[in-house]
Amino acid sequence: MTDKYETGMQVRRHVLGDAHVDRAEAARSPFDDAFQRLITEGAWGTVWASDGITDRERSMITLALLAALGNFDEIPMHIRATARTGASKTDVLEAFQHVAIYAGVPRANHALKLAKATYAEMDET
């Protein structure tokens, strides 16, 4: 494994938690192995590992981009990650308000719906 991969796995576990990463790794197969290496090295070992901005800021940017681009499937995962990155509910609301203005109210509305449901699940545990 490369240094970027090892760093990526450490950062991924820090941000998403061991349980999430363990589930993802258990589902890994030869079919998606190259893709998993790519995202671990690129997203987690390079982008998320950078010290150019804080994890809190990175969470806000990631959530805003996911919502703005309509990539809603990953929003709950990144909402759960805010418990580890320090992005507050207010931070997330502010990010989604920017989405509403710059990318569209329907996308922000759907992202807020997902965030509310995810926060409710988090509060239950």
UniProtKB/TrEMBL annotation:
GO molecular function, one term: peroxiredoxin activity
Gene3D superfamilies cross-referenced by the UniProt entry: AhpD-like
Domain of life: Bacteria
UniProt-recorded name of the protein: 4-carboxymuconolactone decarboxylase
Domain Carboxymuconolactone decarboxylase-like: 34-117
